[in-house]
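Structure tokens
________________
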Amino acid sequence: MTDSYKTLEKNTEEILFKDKGSKFYATAFPLSDPEDMNEILSELNKKHPKAGHHCYAWKIGSGDDNYRINDDGEPRNSAGATIYGQIQSYELSDVAVVVSRIFGGTKLGVSGLINAYKTSAALALDKAEIITKVITEDIIVQFEYPQMSQIMRWIDENGLLIKKQNLTASCEMVISVPQSKVQEHIELLNSWHPIIAKENI
């Protein structure tokens, strides 16, 4: 199980690729919710009202099963799948790439379209600020004040994040830990009696 994935820090600057008079405007976006595509496409329609096609692909999550491709009227698999291939090539997740095409009067043919959409998507991703995000899960840790220094040392040594804490008569913290090490950390903490650790379900 991997603990991290690559995604975008922010939207890329729009790039322009030209081929035989056709203009291909490409932008890459961070995306965590497919519903956000509606707003992205709406804005691009306003920005490029002459575009006959707004082709795109997105991928969400670290697995390979949550993605979508859209040719938006272009020949089947000439645009969306080609754009998605570039997302895969850059090993990105939680990302969308949209290429808006304004027809220039000369047909490119399927092979020409594939090359244009591939090149446009690649140019957009070349400009991207790519970051690595860690996949985490939360665990609940319950302990008494005498164990505070031990818990804080464990948090510091492992570079963990305190999401929430309740320090009253006794102490409880919600800690974010790497997904693949949840059970390892829980077993370690529970070996430090009387500390109690469990998954935050």
About this structure: The chain has a mean pLDDT of 94.
